[in-house]
Amino acid sequence: MKVMKFAPMKEILKLAEEQKVAYGAFVTVSYETALAAIEAGSELNCPVIFITGTDCCDLMGGFEGTVETVKRAAANAQVPIALHLDHCRTYEECVQAIHAGYSSVMIDGSSLPFEENIALTKKVVDYAHTLGITVEGELGKLVGEEGNLVVKGPEGAQTDPQEAKEFVERTGVDCLAVSIGTQHGHYIAAPQLNIERLKAIQEVVEVPLVLHGGSGTPIDQVQESIRHGIRKINVATDVLTAVADSFEELKKQPGFKYNTAMFVNSKNAAKELIKGKMKDFRFEK
Ligand code: 13P
């Protein structure tokens, strides 16, 4: 296996900023889902960012297993690939992921009071930056579920622009996840992104902005958010849905057999979904 190193996510986001596009950050839970995104990125010459929460890592053998799984899938990739720890709530786990080989971590102190979020985020930044690792912070809460945290109710939880400015300046984060009306998981009611709030954040915040809850968000709204500074878009539910649906569709076909081709088919379904997102986020037809 060729020894590859994950790219710092910061560099990928810098590229996105220069090109005024966003790059998708796709969930991986297995070798096949990693391969799906790597094949998609390779075919479209598009950098790939992987997001893995600790629940995803558990499925791949912890942080080390995840690093090995993604490296193996990426062995022949010609595009930059970043491996990012998603929604981590502790300093200790961020450090473990970094030692295992991650190139980027998200420390999510968004459920904490403002000053505590700053203190925790800055502690991770101070350590990660000595090793060239990218750090994402979060301010404001996404409606829906993030692990054990369940947030209800819309606008009150969204990111405050002045707080965002202060947060970025005091912590030194490389990018900031903002809450502007998206939600994790499947939408029950259609989202209405708060683009005016995003514009106000973009005016005062110097770092690239991140949109979580990319699944199911109408593409015109997503592209409008990219025009106003969103440079990374997290997509999990749509990838997992493509995988689940592929099995159901296959089972309806005449002559269906339970065999390994099922997994090739699901990898290809995830790949097509990811290619579509990559094109949308780069405004390509
Ligand atoms: P979705 O599952 O809604 O795509 O959200 C993913 C996400 O934001 C992970 O951090």
Automatic annotation (TrEMBL):
Binding site for Zn(2+) 1: H87, H184, H212
Protein name: Fructose-bisphosphate aldolase class II
The entry's keywords: Metal-binding, Zinc
Cofactor(s) needed by this chain: Zn(2+)
Stretches that traverse the bilayer: none
Organism from which the protein derives: Kineothrix alysoides
Keyword Zinc: yes
PANTHER family in the record: D-TAGATOSE-1,6-BISPHOSPHATE ALDOLASE, D-TAGATOSE-1,6-BISPHOSPHATE ALDOLASE SUBUNIT GATY-RELATED
Catalytic residues, chain numbering: D86 (proton donor)
Lineage of the species this protein comes from: Bacteria, Bacillati, Bacillota, Clostridia, Lachnospirales
